[in-house]
Design a protein that fits this description.
Shape: globular
CATH topology of the largest domain: Nucleotidyltransferase, domain 5
Low-confidence stretches: none
Number of helices: 17
Strand order of the largest sheet: 17-18-16-15-21-22-23
Structural class: alpha+beta
Largest sheet: 7 strands, mixed
Mean pLDDT: 95
CATH architecture of the largest domain: 2-Layer Sandwich
Distance between the termini: 57 Å
Length: 496
């Protein structure tokens, strides 16, 4: 029996998922860690946490399964997107990585638009506007605010690709993650010389880019001794977490939408050609599937909103029990609404100063109502993103394949089906992104002809919720929800 491993270097943990030739999860290892917020709106993390997490999680998965490292045919990588890792000529980390949810770069975004002659040209090349979470504004911020660091930069990598470097000694990047930097030519599927020149970024700093299943290097003897893997094990390009998650749930062709309900919330749809939203509010990226692209909208606090609510108002409460209590409350939470903009927002409002809010509280509401309002508010935010994608030209989906911790709640799944107006399905494994990285590794190892063949064979889908009688009530509540941001934005901005 041969195996592959998918490694996911996320914001809160690095996970290693061991898959067999049938696509079954044999073992999972995980090492958790935190991130730092040294100033308001900043979010940073030490890259060493990802490498230490990779060593620990690979070791856990191999030990738990009893599988020798020599039986692992290939490794696939995925992880948090948009992060900035700066290395000097000896590969030393120059500063903590600036993460996807960092919001310090609004002025840098304005600089980028000006340098490119406006949003229209930027969207024409990259498929996206300059947003605070992307990598390009982080580079401009370092250029403008940390010139001593800037003068020592020799290499730029993204989070999972720092793990790749430590595994293989190679600088490489998959095209899906690369297109999330706002430095990519979307159609050409590679770095844009025009954007790099306009932002004064040395092209020599940027790693070579590869399609998702392509082999980018081999595990070194040093990395093998630390991880238990076999020296010479191929490591494929993989994909940013959302593209890899889409592979993991089988959203590799037009018509199937992937929904990720993790810390952030993502709506993802595959396309055969690059589709650009002229306003740049819908993300257009390369897929981890060769020759395919995708549309994507992102809300920054999805399951993260429930985590905040639990930690602040129900510390120690089990997530399942907390979400189940919302089932005691009717759809619409008896008029209570929740805005989930706890860390600013990206879709549908690219506003780092947006804030969360409960609106409509009365003496008749209790914790159950507030819990349901949080679940509904996240669903409304995801619907906003879906509506943007439909307006950009995406067909109405018949099925949404959901993954992430939030999908464990049957109450939340039904809310999502009612609000999104689509059947919600789950897949055979809950390890979406890591499993997707493993499937890309399986293709790279030669087990399958292409990614579509791998997902057709290995991904098993189960419908779990369909729109019900509350859908009409939610349409009315969503209309009221959409009035809140325009009404409150001036106050948010004065507070910010």
């Amino acid at each position: 029996m041969a195996y592959v491993i998918g490694i996911d270097a996320s914001t809160t943990a690095t996970k290693a998922v061991l898959l067999d030739e049938a696509g079954a999860v044999v073992a999972v290892g995980a090492v958790e860690y935190g991130f730092e917020t040294p100033q308001p709106r900043w979010s940073e993390q030490s890259p060493d946490l990802w490498w230490e997490g990779a060593i620990g999680s690979i070791g856990q998965a191999l030990a738990a399964s009893g599988v020798p490292g020599a039986d692992v045919a290939a490794i696939g990588l995925t992880g948090q997107m948009h992060g900035l890792v700066l290395l000097d000529a000896s590969d030393a980390v120059l500063r903590p990585a600036i993460l996807w949810n960092d919001q310090r770069t609004q002025e840098a975004c304005d600089e980028i638009r000006a340098a490119m002659g406006g949003v229209e040209r930027l969207v024409e090349i990259t498929g996206n506007d300059a947003l605070t979470g992307f990598t390009a504004p982080k580079l401009v911020w370092v250029r403008d605010h940390e010139p001593e660091i800037w003068s020592r930069v020799a290499h730029v990598v993204l989070p999972k690709d720092y793990v790749r470097l430590r595994l293989t000694g190679e600088y490489a990047l998959d095209k899906a993650d690369g297109s999330g930097t706002a430095l990519f030519d979307l159609t050409a599927r590679d770095w844009s010389a025009e954007v790099l020149e306009a932002l004064r970024i040395d092209p020599a700093w940027m790693p070579r880019t590869f399609e998702g299943p392509a082999v980018t290097g081999m595990v070194t003897a040093e990395a093998a001794s630390l991880t238990g893997l076999r020296a010479g094990t191929p490591v494929v390009a993989g994909g940013g977490d959302q593209a890899a998650n889409a592979v993991g749930v089988g959203a590799v062709r037009p018509g199937v939408v992937a929904l990720s309900l993790g810390t952030s919330g993502v709506v993802f749809a595959t396309t055969d050609t690059p589709i650009r939203d002229p306003r740049g509010q819908v993300h257009a990226f390369c897929h981890a599937v060769p020759g395919r692209w995708h549309l994507m909208t992102v809300m920054l606090s999805a399951a993260g909103s429930l985590r905040w609510f639990r930690d602040a108002l129900a510390p120690g409460e089990d997530y399942g029990a907390l979400a189940a209590s919302a089932g005691d409350v009717p759809a619409g939470s008896d008029g209570l609404l929740f805005l989930p903009y706890l860390t600013g927002e990206r879709s549908p409002h690219p506003d780092p100063l947006a804030r969360g809010a409960f609106v409509g509280l009365t003496i008749g509401h209790d914790r159950r109502h507030m819990t349901r309002a949080v679940l509904e508010g996240v669903a409304f935010g995801l619907r906003d993103g879906l509506d943007q994608m439909l307006a950009a030209g995406m067909p109405v989906p018949a099925q949404v394949r959901a993954s992430g911790g939030g999908t464990a709640s049957p109450v939340w799944r039904q809310i999502l089906a009612d609000v999104l107006g689509a059947e919600i399905a789950t897949v055979s494994t809950a390890e979406g992104a890591a499993a997707g990285a493993g499937l890309l590794a399986a293709v790279g190892a030669g087990w399958f002809e292409d990614v579509e063949a791998a997902t057709d064979r290995l991904v098993r889908v189960t419908p779990v919720a369909a729109p019900g009688p509350d859908a009409g009530r939610y349409a009315e509540a969503h209309a009221r929800y959409r009035e809140l941001y325009p009404a409150l934005a001036p106050t948010f901005h004065r507070m910010g």
